[in-house]
Amino acid sequence: MSPAAARRRIAEATDWRLYLVTDPHLGGGQDAVPGIVAEAVRGGVGVVQVRDKECDDDEFAVHAAAIAAAADRAASEVGRRVPVFVNDRLEVARELGLHLHIGQRDEPLARARRRCRTS
Question: pTM for the complete prediction?
Fold first, then answer.
C-alpha cells in the first residue's frame, strides 16, 4: 500500500466528530494530561492534539510521548485507533511518528510537507 493510500485509510477510519486539544495549564499540569486523554478516549474522543506553548522541545517530546502512549492504551481498550497530533512542532511529530497540526499563522503548509519528507 502506498503512503498516500495508507493516510487515506487512516483518515477514513478516524472519528473526527470529537477532537480533544490538550492544555497542561487548564488540565491540572503535565502529569495529569495523559490520564485525562485516556478517559477522553474511553469516552469517545476520536482525535487528540498535544498542545503546550510554554515548554521547550525536549520537555514537549516527553509530554507528547506520554500522551500518545495513554491514547494508544485507551484506544486498544475500546477497539479503535485514535490519532495523536502534535501542535506546531514538526521535529517532535516526526521523531515520535505522530501527526502534525499547523495553524494558519504557523509554518506554511508546503514548507512543512517538504520538511516532513526530508530526513
Answer: 0.84
